[in-house]
Specification:
Layout (H helix, E strand, L loop, with lengths): L4 E4 L9 H16 L3 E4 L13 H12 L5 E2 L15 H13 L3 E4 L3 H13 L22 H9 L5 E4 L6 E6 L3 E6 L7 E4 L4 E2 L1 H11 L4 E5 L6 H11 L7 E5 L2 E2 L9 H7 L8 E2 L5 E2 L2 H4 L3 H9 L14 H7 L10 E2 L2 H14 L2 H14 L6 H11 L9 H5 L11 H7 L4 H14 L5 H15 L3 H13 L7 H25 L1
Parallel strand pairs: 1-2, 2-3, 10-11, 12-15
Antiparallel strand pairs: 4-5, 5-8, 6-7, 8-9, 13-14
The structure holds glutamic acid.
Length: about 500
């Protein structure tokens, strides 16, 4: 078997949806798993839908995800160029070849005349299709002589090349995920393959020609392309390339969190999660949020995506890229849609965050502290991280989880005040103030022992007193170990916060 060659072939029509990233990822994993080549080809032949900046967005996204391109746009390789708009000279000869072999024809029908046919069909409650049932009556080379065709081209008439879909043929296709797929060719229309107006091929022609020329062995792409497969298979046959035709694998859709329908940008906007890897600012200034900017680690994002459609057959959920490469197989990609879960995405990030060394997280947190004018040694930050990280999902939550290490609470959670700051408790806190004022050893362990002994000696309710102290120091009844906080902020700050709480909460 020849070496595995796969391609990710996005069209630069906007930001890359996470479904597209998953397609790239599966291609990449498949290539790496088999020692093959992962190619990036940009399919930019639809000038109408071209969006400025989209190609850069695609390459930036792949880079952020750690998906390395072996060959293609931005990297080069033996089949350059890899941007279809730069390959335009290649496609016309192939379109002509199909006309000459009787598999395609020139059509001169104007956009207006086709619009009219569409409108008439609609009025009859039908949908117009340029297919075997109508093509003989339309303005195309099927009924013109070669001289007539040439004369019309010479006089400057615009034309397209259309595929001449066979009639009544059962097209049998093999899909690595779906198994055998059959379609009767009579249900398919005569797709446009090439347009003289812009001198560009359509997706179908360029895609097949390039997959052939680039010696692609496996086409792994989204399910939305399955309806194009019969045409593609027939194109391979028409070119005489069936023997070297790639194998196909159509990936299941990414579904909305409800499981109903395809995951869209609107779902993300509505439910507050990104559907794009990176933030995207459209040419008109519309902003779409990205996983990167929301604080996701690329490893967590990739791990989450890998499991949306593929399952390892075990209970394992956390996979590094190397583990994914080791374990990935198309056989374990499911047929049915994969439901996206925003909560699960967060869960993955939390797992990665909790597993990261405190020093690494401290280095990520430091710039935010510096921006707030807090310049403390790395080991102090590291210590804080160790105390708070189990409660965090994102690095951008660190401040909220640790601000009390640096500043006294501005407010006290009213619910906690009502629950704990009552009865004898303020008096007990006053006593605790005196106790701490006498303490010399402010290490967490020593403080704990001292205070616990005092509470026991007095017979005070431990939970009540501790929650009041927490309220005074943190402003709420949650947070990491209290004595770690006391030890970190030190005696002076501890006493001043207790004094302030006694004063403010007395009123
Ligand atoms: N350009 C197509 C896309 O944007 C490629 C589909 C394919 O992989 O054949 O998804």
């Amino acid at each position: 078997m020849s070496a595995i060659r796969v391609r990710f072939a996005p069209s630069p029509t906007g930001p890359l949806h996470i479904g597209g990233v998953r397609t790239a990822l599966y291609n990449y994993l498949f290539a790496r798993r088999h020692g093959g080549t992962f190619i990036l080809r940009i399919e930019d032949t639809d000038s109408q839908r071209y969006v400025e900046g989209a190609e850069k967005y695609i390459t930036d996204s792949l880079k952020w995800c750690g998906i390395e391109v072996d060959e293609g746009v931005g990297v080069g390789g033996p089949h350059e160029p890899y941007r279809q708009s730069e390959r335009r000279a290649i496609y016309l000869q192939y379109a002509r070849q199909l006309v000459q072999s009787g598999n395609a024809y020139y059509s001169f029908d104007s956009a207006e005349s086709l619009d009219k046919l569409r409108a008439e069909a609609e009025a009859r409650g039908e949908v117009f299709a340029y297919d075997h049932s109508v093509r003989d009556g339309l303005d195309n080379s099927l009924k013109l002589t070669a001289e007539e065709v040439q004369a019309r081209m010479d006089r400057g008439d615009q034309w397209v090349v259309r595929f001449k879909m066979p009639v009544g043929e059962e097209v049998v296709m093999q899909d690595l995920i779906r198994g055998e797929v059959r379609v009767n060719s009579s249900t398919l229309d005569d797709k446009v393959l090439y347009k003289s107006a812009d001198g560009l091929p359509t997706y179908h022609l360029a895609n097949i020609v390039d997959d052939h020329l680039m010696e692609i062995t496996h086409v792994i792409r989204g399910e939305e392309w399955l309806p194009s497969l019969p045409l593609h298979v027939l194109l391979y046959r028409a070119f005489g390339w069936s023997d070297s035709q790639p194998q196909f694998a159509h990936l299941p859709l990414l579904l909305k969190p409800t499981g109903q329908g395809k995951l869209s940008k609107r779902d993300g906007d509505k439910m507050g999660f990104p559907v794009f890897p990176l933030r995207w600012v459209s040419p008109t200034g519309e902003i779409s949020r990205g996983y990167r900017e929301d604080g996701y680690f690329p490893e967590a994002f990739i791990n989450m995506l890998a499991l949306l459609g593929w399952n390892p057959g075990t209970e394992q959920e956390i996979f590094s890229m190397d583990e994914l490469i080791r374990d990935f197989s198309l056989e374990r990609v499911g047929k049915s849609g994969a439901r996206f879960s925003p909560d699960k995405a967060k869960w993955f990030n939390a797992q990665y965050l909790h597993a990261k060394p405190d020093e690494e997280l401290a280095a990520m947190y430091r710039p935010e502290l510096l921006a707030k004018g807090i310049d403390i040694p790395m080991e102090k930050i590291t210590q804080i991280i160790g105390l708070i990280k189990s409660r965090a999902t994102f690095v951008n939550e660190f401040w909220e989880l640790s601000s009390f290490f640096f500043e006294a609470p501005q407010e006290y959670d009213p619910k906690a005040v009502q629950k704990f700051w009552n009865g004898d408790n303020p008096g007990r806190i006053k006593e605790l103030y005196a106790l701490l004022e006498q303490a010399d050893d402010f290490t967490a362990g020593a403080l704990h022992d001292k205070v616990a002994a005092w509470i026991e000696d007095k017979g005070y309710p431990m939970g009540q007193v501790m929650n009041c102290l927490r309220l005074a120091l943190v402003g709420a009844s949650k947070g990491p170990d209290l004595f770690e906080i006391v030890s970190f902020i030190g005696k002076e700050q501890t006493l001043s916060r207790i004094a302030k709480a006694l004063e403010v909460l007395a009123n």
